[in-house]
Specification:
By secondary structure, the chain is an alpha+beta fold. It has three domains: 198 residues, Aldehyde ferredoxin oxidoreductase, N-terminal domain (Aldehyde Ferredoxin Oxidoreductase,  A, domain 1), CATH 3.60.9.10; 172 residues, Aldehyde Ferredoxin Oxidoreductase Protein, subunit A, domain 2 (Orthogonal Bundle); 156 residues, Aldehyde Ferredoxin Oxidoreductase Protein, subunit A, domain 3 (Orthogonal Bundle). Helix 12 packs parallel to helix 14. The protein is globular, with a radius of gyration of 22 Å. It binds iron/sulfur cluster (SF4). Iron/sulfur cluster binds next to loops.
């Protein structure tokens, strides 16, 4: 089928061997690559109940039919495995420039199993696969590792994905980084690479993905550019990036603050998009093939971090360190962001764990003296997590295990072991549904339903009928994850546009019902994987504090509202009343 090379690379890290396998065309027509292909490969290859950090757990990297095309927002890859953080499906996505050299190796997916006896980095090209000794890179941070490998492959236009010291030590929320600051951040994929002693993977080649209509893609992208380049959503992302959400969420009383005990941080103006513009030198920065340019290359102008430069901080990092830990200095948040990037840790999980540790300290449950708003203490804590020393070793186990160890399980905020993003569901009840049923835990990106609620597409307090709109959002996001395209193009790539993109790249003509069927098929695959790994519908819930502890404005979630929305969701998905029946035909929305 067009849009694919129709082959995957399988690497045995234990014996340092490799083979290629064809991809079943019918599967590709159903799953469209990316997330769908990745979950399907995990279901085929992973033994049920596997220990996530054992050699038998597979790491899968996938591309989609838009990879290395002129389709805007298409420079992304997906990385999947059984998550060491949740024990369920782990998948994460990253932009930057890496997906292009990855695609030019001539594969649709890379499947890695086993574990090397000593540190290696793997060079994957369209002509060969080589395993290089990485002993000298072990212990280096992500920037140093990327620089070192790119200088070895300087003639090759190579792209590199790497882990930092946290991944080496299997910190359960370690990330995979590329292009310095782009992270496949959530669910601990960096720990899987670390458990296999794979420090980095480099990609290069000259293979061109075959497309159904290359000229049509060119004309289509020109048209999208001229229609949306000056759109107000493009302007907002280009001018302010995701930090514009700081003002919006504080106004909506949904900005998680003081470890989820408040929906508003009184010092939020000092960590907002305006504060970034005032106190940092900020320039827009884009992934390859993008006209939106939500990225911000920021440099600290004054103070103890003068000159520090990175791409970011993103809204989620600001909420995690600014709101949850109450750091009211944008420069200090840049510094904590930089530490997480270098060490290779997810900023959302790190911020949540730091705030939990502060609560533990305030209750005298740990010997460390930690307080809200103290950036130096948090920086020290991040280093300890990466080193797995002292309290850091406990926090490195992730929110579920760490909170149980500390006797704070009732205080901890997570779903299925993954902490939520910066949208307090007590202010946005559709996000309550999103966090409860997302296949990777409390994730905002599987549906981006905050958008529907904040933009007023549906009343905040509506319960009946909310799941119907939610499934529409979730299905479109699933298609983005299969193709693979950036979330921030979701308003531009409506159902009709997604259909057009699929036809231009693969040649498949799919109407809206057929698109929704494919998204539902992929959601079923993810659910099947999670049920295989022991998930039950009892895991489709929220932490008790969201029901029992109202925000200052009285906002809370009523248990019966959440369960009504979940029931409606199960029904639309065709999963039966108990959420376990994966063999029914999903009830599809009208075409
Ligand atoms: S909108 Fe942002 S994340 Fe998406 S492709 Fe563009 S720069 Fe990358």
């Amino acid at each position: 089928m067009n849009g694919f090379f129709n082959r995957i690379l399988v690497i045995d890290a234990t014996h340092q061997t490799f083979s290629t396998e064809p991809v079943n065309e019918t599967d590709l027509q159903l799953m469209l690559g990316g997330k769908g292909l990745g979950v399907s490969l995990l279901l085929q290859k992973n033994p049920a109940g596997v220990d996530p950090l054992s050699p038998e757990n597979h790491l899968v990297i996938t591309l989609g039919p838009t990879s290395d095309s002129l389709i805007y927002g298409s420079c992304r890859y997906c990385i999947l495995s059984k998550s060491p953080l949740t024990g369920f499906l782990g998948h994460s996505y990253s932009g930057g420039h890496l997906a292009i050299p990855m695609s030019r190796t001539g594969y649709d997916a890379f499947v890695i199993h086993g574990a090397s006896e000593k540190p290696v980095w793997i060079e994957i090209s369209d002509t060969d696969i080589q395993f290089h000794d990485a002993t000298g890179l072990w212990g280096k941070d992500t920037y140093q590792t990327e620089d070192a490998i790119k200088s070895i492959l300087s003639d090759m236009n190579a792209g590199v994905m790497t882990i930092g010291p946290a991944g080496e030590k299997c910190v359960r929320f370690a990330v995979v980084e590329n292009d310095y600051w782009r992270s496949a951040g959530r669910t601990g994929m960096g720990a899987i690479m670390g458990s296999k002693q794979i420090k980095a993977i480099a990609f290069h080649g000259i293979q061109q993905r075959p497309f159904a209509d290359p000229e049509g893609i060119r004309a289509y992208s020109k048209q999208i550019l001229s229609t949306f380049r000056d759109h107000k959503a493009t302007d907002a992302y280009r001018n302010f990036g995701t930090p514009m959400m700081v003002a919006m969420l504080n106004t909506a009383n949904a900005f998680p603050t003081r470890y989820w005990s408040s929906g508003k941080f009184e010092n939020w103006p000092s960590i907002s998009a305006d504060a970034m513009a005032d106190r940092l030198n900020v320039k827009p920065k884009s992934c390859k093939t993008c006209f939106i340019g939500c990225g911000k290359l920021s440099q600290v102008k004054a103070g103890r971090h003068t000159g520090l430069k990175l791409e970011g901080p993103e809204y989620e990092t600001i909420y995690a360190f600014g709101g949850l830990c109450m750091i009211d200095s944008i420069e200090e948040i840049v510094h904590l962001n930089d530490l997480c990037d270098r060490l290779g840790m997810d900023t959302i999980s790190a911020g949540n764990l730091a705030a939990l540790a502060i609560e533990a300290s305030l209750r005298n449950l740990i010997s460390e003296k930690l307080e809200y708003g103290n950036a130096r203490q948090i920086a020290d804590l991040l280093q300890k997590i990466s080193d797995r020393s002292g309290i850091g070793d406990i926090l490195a186990r992730g929110i579920k295990a760490a909170s149980q160890y500390l006797g704070l399980a009732d205080l901890a905020i997570h779903v299925k072991g993954l902490e939520p993003a910066g949208y307090d569901p007590r202010g946005l009840n559709g996000m309550a549904l999103a966090y409860a049923v997302s296949d990777r835990g409390a994730c905002h990106l599987r549906s981006t339903f905050y958008k529907a609620e904040l933009a007023g597409l549906i009343p905040l307090d509506q319960v009946d009928g909310k799941a119907k709109l939610f499934v529409d959002f979730e299905d479109r996001c699933t298609l983005h994850d299969c193709l693979i395209t950036c979330r921030f193009y979701r308003d531009f790539y409506t159902w009709d546009e997604l259909s057009r993109i699929i036809e231009l790249t693969t040649g498949l003509k799919l109407n809206r019902v057929e698109l929704a069927e494919r998204a539902a098929y992929v959601s079923n695959l993810a659910r099947r994987f999670n049920i295989q790994e022991g998930m039950t519908p009892l895991d489709d819930t929220l932490p008790g504090r969201f029901f029992n502890e109202p925000l200052e404005n009285g906002a809370t979630i009523r248990t019966e509202d959440l369960y009504r929305m979940i029931q409606e969701y199960y029904l639309i998905r065709g999963w039966g009343k108990d959420g376990l029946d994966l063999n029914r035909t999903p009830i599809l929305r009208d075409a």
